[in-house]
Amino acid sequence: MACPRILSQAAPRAALLLAAALALPACAHDAASTAPAGKARDAFVAQRGKPGSPVHVSIRVPAAPLAVGATRVGLALEAVPGVTEVGLSYRTEGALRVEAEAPARVVLDGQRKAVVEVPVTILANGVHYLHVYTDANGRQGAISIRLDASRPTSAKAKTSAPSTQSGGFILLPTQENRSGGSAR
């Protein structure tokens, strides 16, 4: 049997460790839940750029799924020393349009930083990409931003697999494409 003195010393330590272990997740959870709801979504997320890139870009995109229509993508720019102005150009993939008021040149502040909003319009449901190209002191960089405007899936929209009660085979429709060449 264990010595009562060891048990009496271990009990407070165990209680302290247990209380600390239980309090930590609760504190972290409480801190996250007491933060304003918009703070998590309004945070900028740093994008990994090429080593030596003159401009580092962080992005802020509204939470997915996005609705079809107008929205804004936030860009936080931070440049290396010697850069005072950044040129921006945009390309899109999918049903996405960059509006005319999107900034083409951004003057950085004294700390070589700037925050800009790029107005875009999502024209259809689906996944779209906004490609942002930066130009500073003759050096270029690029990032791609995914905009997810897909419809949320519901339990009713899911389809089940076809039944295989008729022998274990599933018949799938096929389509034959011919290239126009002669078959041998």
From TrEMBL:
Stretch list, region Disordered: 150-184
Keyword Signal assigned: yes
Polar residues biased stretches: 151-167, 174-184
UniProt-recorded name of the protein: Lipoprotein
Record's signal peptide: 1-28
Keywords for this protein: Signal
Organism: Pigmentiphaga humi
